[in-house]
Amino acid sequence: MTATSAPTITTVGQLRAAGHVLKPLRTEIRDNLLAMLRAGEDPWPGLHGLDNTVIPQLERALIAGHDVVLLGERGQGKTRLLRTMVGLLDEWSPVIEGSELGEHPLDPITHASRRRAAELGEDLPVAWRHREERYAEKLATPDTSVADLIGDVDPIKVAEGRSLGDPETIHFGLIPRSHRGIVAINELPDLAERIQVAMLNVMEERDIQIRGYVLRLPLDVLVVATANPEDYTNRGRIITPLKDRFGAEIRTHYPVELEAEVAVVRQEADLVADVPHHLVEILARFTRNLRESSAVDQRSGVSARFSIAGAETVAAAALHRATAQGEPDAVARMVDLETAVEVLGGKVEFESGEEGRESEILTHLLRTAVAETVRAHLRGIDFALLVEAIEGGMLVTTGERMRAQDFLAGLPVLGESDLYDQVCTALYDGTELNDGQRASALEFALEGLYLARKISKDVDSGETVYG
Known about the structure:
The protein has 467 residues and is an alpha/beta fold. The protein is built from 21 helices and 14 strands. The chain has helices at 12-17, 25-39, 54-64, 78-84, 111-120, 146-149, 155-159, 174-177, 193-198, 200-203, 229-235, 240-245, 258-268, 277-292, 304-325, 334-341, 358-378, 384-391, 404-409, 419-428, 435-451, and strands at 68-71, 92-96, 126-130, 135-139, 151-153, 170-172, 181-186, 208-210, 213-215, 221-227, 248-251, 396-399, 457-460, 463-466.
């Protein structure tokens, strides 16, 4: 959102009188980045797990004024990282009002803008562009043309009577229109090689060539791109001369720390119900286990979108149950997690020798994630009384259609023991809980006992019985 209103300056004369200084784009980005670092501000809000690796490399590249290509698997935050660079631009930047390329009033570069500047002098009208308008993004697809990125002759302008040699007959593409801004190209290797060739002059000589015409336009653009290693080596590639023109190639990665993985899910997932922390942590551990599994094709990676979609599906299942069963609070439980995994399998690429075992692999890795989370949060709690009650014949029933109140009512009575409160405190830090949150915590504990082979579990027609 815009933090301040646009300046009220409307002419070049007023701009000069105000003492405005023209800065090249790379100098503007460098100065703003250094100012934020000096003030202790975070230039990269919302990015987790990259603080000690990718971000320092990117900051050094921007300070050096380099064009950048980010190389990494899907779902590693490459696009988000590029979009966050918008925050390094000045909030408002002056442009010649009506200019096609958004030229700076003190530095017109097209024939038309120079003519207007000569005619109007100090009265040349000035408009203001917000930083969000100075970022352009293009998804590289095989059907992308030179006209899309660079430009082409506009037949309408020719039909108006101008000659083909007139520079004003040219319709500019995305890169020239991003003058004094950032242009991002996603999945650069998917761009046809002949189109990549068209970018060579733009990135080095800063001129453009359209149908035999050479326009010496001193374009001031920062070109940033993303590439997937699988595309980079197989389906497509960045041609060597273009790769050489990028000043920095930076490898991205998935979050190294579990806490960063959880933070990404919390930040990106649009949850329609309460998903307790221990369930989000299970999804994060599950995703990390998939990335380490030899049964999963690691060349395609396991995106952070897997755990994000999982959290959203779990929340949807909780809201569905709460609505259908008349629960006052929609809180996700273990039964929601197990049903959600059924719809997530399609987001994972398995190795060719694992056909038919996909469900088995997912179930095993999910149980491993649950067991790891139980050990992390419930270690040290003595469940002997609960195990004895169940061994004595008590059955605990739950399911995707069972209300939290009914599940809690079916738990064994343990006399004066505060075991249930210990579990809830371990997972919720002693906060006051509703029935849905208590049910989620205790169902999690029961699943941990089952995985530790202290009790058994039987699942049938959406109903789960611990005994």
